[in-house]
Amino acid sequence: MLDWYDTHKRSMPWRETDDPYRIWVSEIMLQQTRVDTVRDYYHRFLEAFPTVEALADADRDTVLKHWEGLGFYARARHLHTAAQHVVDEHDGTVPSTMDAIKDLKGVGPYTAAAVLSIAYRKPHAVLDGNVTRVLSRVFAVDEDATTSAAEGHLRDLANELLDPDRPGDFNQAMMELGALVCTPRTPHCDRCPLNAVCRAHDAGTEEDYPITPESEPVPHEDIAVGLVFDDNDRLLIQRRPDEGLLGGLWEFPGGKQEGDESMEAACRREVREELGVGMTDVEPFYTLSHAYSHFKITLHAFRGRLADGPPEAREDQPFRWVTVDELDDYAFPRANRRLIEELVRRQTEPSLFD
C-alpha cells in the first residue's frame, strides 16, 4: 500500500504541510465534499485565517462568508467554536491526544484519527467511506456496513493493518485507493495493489460490497420565499438560528407550503409568521430547484413591497434591510444565492422589473 501510495498519490496542498491546524482544516472541509471542490476553498480560507488564533478571533458571519458555497455549514460553525477552545484551553496548539482532540466541537472518530496520524504520526487508523469500501471488498465483509457492529469490525481490521511507522501515509493510502481505484461503481481492479488478496475480486462480486440497506426515496418540498422591498428599494433579510440546517446563514424569509395553500399564500403567511409584516404588490419572481444531501426543494420566490411594519426579529434571528449590491457581503445558502444572481441580473436590466 505504501509503495503504491508513494507512486500514485495526488498532489494536494494539505499534503505539503505538517501544521496540525492546516491539516485539521482540510479534514473538516473534506467531510462529504469532493477534493476538487475543497482545493480553492482551502486556499482562500487559510488566506483569511492563517492561524488558529486568527480563526478564533474572527466573527461568525465572516467565517461563514468564507465557507459560503461549500455546504454542510455546521462544519464551519463547529470549527470556529473549536478554534476558540484550542486558543483558550490549549494555548493555540491543536491537541495531540485522542481524548483531548475529540473534545473539540465537530471532531469525531474519523477526524481525530486523521489529524493525529497525519499531523502527529500517532497510530490511529481512519475509517471513512473509502476505507470501508476497500476493507469490505478485500475481506468480503458480509455485514451491513452501516451498523455499529460492522463498523467496529472494520475499525479493528483497519487498526490491525495500520503501518505504525507511517500511520498518516497508510491512512491516506487507503483513502486514496478507494477514491481512485476501488470506486463504488466499476472499480479498476486491474490497477489495484490488493487485487491478489481481495476476496470480492476473486469471486467477481466487487460491486456487491459494502453491503448497505436500500436507499429511501429522496423527499421533496415546495418552499416559498419573499423578496420584501421597502420604499427605498432595500431588501429584508434575516439570519437563520445558529443550530440546525444552514445555521447562521442569512436568507430571505419563507418556508414550506402547507396543505393545499397556493405558493403565494404560503409566502405571505411565512413572512407574517417570521417577521410580523405583510406584503403588497406581490408577484412571482423566480422558481428554481435545488438538491441538498438528503432532500430536494423547489423554491418559489415572490417579489413585493412591505405592507406594514416595522418587522420584528425573532430570538437568534436578527433581520436587516440591505440593497441588492450589499447582499454579497452576507453568507447565504446556495439556493438563495441563485436568487441573488437573478436579482443582480435584473437590476442591470431594469425593464425586467416591469
> In the CATH hierarchy, what is the architecture of the largest domain at level 2?
Orthogonal Bundle
Tell me the count of domains. Answer: 2
Q: What gross morphology would you assign?
A: globular
- Termini gap: 64 Å
Order of strands across the biggest sheet? 4-1-6-5
Q: Return the CATH topology of the largest domain.
A: Endonuclease III, domain 1
Question: What profile does the largest beta sheet have?
Answer: 4 strands, mixed
What Rg do the Cα atoms give? Answer: 24 Å
CATH superfamily of the largest domain: Hypothetical protein, domain 2
GO molecular function: 4 iron, 4 sulfur cluster binding; 8-oxo-7,8-dihydroguanine DNA N-glycosylase activity; adenine/guanine mispair binding; metal ion binding; oxidized purine DNA binding; purine-specific mismatch base pair DNA N-glycosylase activity
Keywords: 4Fe-4S, DNA damage, DNA repair, DNA-binding, Glycosidase, Hydrolase, Iron, Iron-sulfur, Metal-binding
Domain Nudix hydrolase: 219-346
Catalytic activity: Hydrolyzes free adenine bases from 7,8-dihydro-8-oxoguanine:adenine mismatched double-stranded DNA, leaving an apurinic site
Structure at a glance:
The chain has 354 residues and is an alpha+beta fold.
Describe the structure in your own words.
- This protein is of the alpha+beta class and 354 residues long.
- It has 2 domains: 2-208, Orthogonal Bundle (Endonuclease III, domain 1); 220-353, Nucleoside Triphosphate Pyrophosphohydrolase (Alpha-Beta Complex).
- Helices cover 42% and strands 14% of the residues.
- The protein contains 14 helices and 7 strands.
- The chain has helices at residues 2-8, 20-30, 35-48, 52-57, 60-67, 74-90, 98-101, 109-119, 129-138, 148-161, 167-180, 199-203, 263-275, 334-347; strands spanning 220-229, 235-239, 250-251, 254-256, 279-291, 296-306, 319-322.
- The strands form 2 sheets. It has a 4-stranded mixed β-sheet with strand order 4-1-6-5, sandwiched between helices. A 3-stranded antiparallel β-sheet has the order 3-2-7, with no helix packed on it.
- α8 crosses α11 (167-180) and α9 crosses α11.
- The N and C termini lie far apart (64 Å).
